[in-house]
Amino acid sequence: MNNQPVLHYFPALDGVRGWMAIGVLLAHVNLPWFPGAMVLMELFFVISGFLITSIIWRGIEKHGYLNLKEFWKRRLARLYPVLILVVVVCSVVAFFVVDDMRPVLSDGLATLLYYSNWTKLYNYIYPSIYGQTWSLAVEEQFYLLWSLIFLAATKFRLNALRIAGCLVLLALCCMAWKYYLIAQGAPWSRLYYALDTRMDAFVAGGLLALAYPRLHRWFQHSLLHALLNVAACLYLLLVVLGTPKEMAYFYWQQSAAVILSALVVLLLASPRQSIFQWLFRLRPSVLLGQRCYSIYLWHWPVIWLLLATFQLDKIELLCVVLPSVLLLSWMSYAWVEQPFMSRRRGMPG
User: Are the C-beta atoms of residues 291 and 3 closer than 8 Å to each other?
Assistant: First the structure.
C-alpha cells in the first residue's frame, strides 16, 4: 500500500509558469531569440487542465458532488478583480494616446466577457490592446465545459477510470476535428484561437490529475525519471525550433507539444527531484510564478500602448517593458490578487 501523501501544491509548476510568462513577453516584444516561444501555450493549457481537474476531483471526493455555484465564485474571485483593473487602467491610458477608442472599448468588452478568442478566428491581423486575453477566454470556456462534464459525471456516478475513458474519447474527437478543419482549408487563426482545437491540451492535464494519485510508486523508477527528463529537453528544443505561427504547426508539432507538456508536468509534479524541478522551485522562480497571471495580463497592453506612443526599437522596448510589467504585476498581486485570494480561502467548497 502507498502511504505517501498526495501533494496539492507544486511550487515547480508555479515557477515554470512564471518563466513562461516572461518567455511570452519576450516573444511579444518580437525579439528573434525564441521563435517557437508560443509553443509555451500548450504547457500553460496542460497545467491549467491538471490543476483545475485536481481541484474539482478533490472536491468531488470530499463532498460527493460538485457545487457549481461555489466553484464559479472561487474562480471569479481569483481571476476577475485584476482583469478588471488592467482593462480599466489601460483603457484610461489609451484614451489619451489613440484617436479612436471604439476598438479599445470593444476589445475590453470581449475580454471582460471572455469571448475575445472568438473575435480572432478569421481575418485577424494586428493584435488589439488586449490581444493576449484570447487564452484567458479559452481557459474560461474550458472551465465552463469542464465543470459541466464533471457535474454530469457525478450525476451518473462515474469513477475516475470511466471519466478518464470519456476524456480520452474527447481528446481523440478534438484531434480528428482539428485535422478535418485543416483538410477543409481553415485558416491558421481558426486553429490557434479556438477552444475546440485546443481541448486536447486541457484533456491531457485532466488525465494527469486523475492518474496522479496512482502514480506515486512509479515516480521512483529510474527509467521513468530519465524519460521525463528527456521529454523536458525535447520540449525545450521544440520551443526553440517550433513554428507555432505557421499552419504546419498543427500537422504534428502541436500534438507533440501537448504530449511533451504532459510529461513535463509529471516531471515537475514528481516527488523525485530533478534539475528542472530544482530550477523552477528556486525562490525567484516561485515568486515569478505567483505573479504570472498579472505579468501575463499587463505585458501586452503595456507593449501596445508604448508602440502607439513612441518609436522604440526592440531592445529599447524590452528595457522599458520588462521592469514596468514586473513593477505593475508586483503591485497588482499585492494589492488586488492577494486580498481577493485571502477572501476566497474563506469561501465554502
Answer: no
Residue 40 near residue 307 (C-beta atoms within 8 A): no
How many angstroms separate the CA atoms of 166 and 162, rounded?
A: 6
Q: What angle do CA 90, 92, 96 make, to 5 degrees?
A: 105
Which residues neighbour 315 within 8 Å (Cβ) at sequence distance 6 or greater? none
Helices (H), the chain: 11-28, 40-63, 68-95, 102-112, 134-155, 160-183, 188-193, 199-211, 222-241, 253-269, 275-281, 283-290, 292-309, 314-332, 338-345
Which residues, 6 or more positions from 174, have their beta carbon under 8 angstroms from its beta carbon?
196, 197, 198, 199, 200, 203
pLDDT at 71: 92
Q: What is the pLDDT of residue 292?
A: 97
The residue type of 138 is V
Amino acid at 49: G
pLDDT in tens, 116-172: 999 999 988 778 999 999 999 999 999 999 999 999 999 999 999 999 999 999 999
Classified as helix, coil or strand, 34 is coil
Burial class (CB in 10 A: 0-12, 13-18, 19+), 92: exposed
Helix, strand or coil, per DSSP, at residue 213 = helix
**Segments making up each domain of the chain, as ranges:** 11-327
> What residue has cell string 508555479?
14
Low-confidence ranges of the chain (pLDDT < 50): 1-5, 348-349
Reading the block at residue 333, the C-alpha cell is 498581486
What pLDDT sits at residue 4? 47
- For residue 94, give the amino acid letter: A
pLDDT in tens, 2-12: 444 456 789 99
Its sign, for the CA torsion 22, 25, 27, 29, is negative
Going by C-beta distance under 8 Å and a sequence separation of 6 or more, which residues neighbour residue 8?
54, 58
**pLDDT at residue 349 in the model:** 46
Task: Note the pLDDT tens digit of each residue in 280-292.
Answer: 999 999 999 999 9
Q: Is the pTM of this model over 0.85?
A: yes
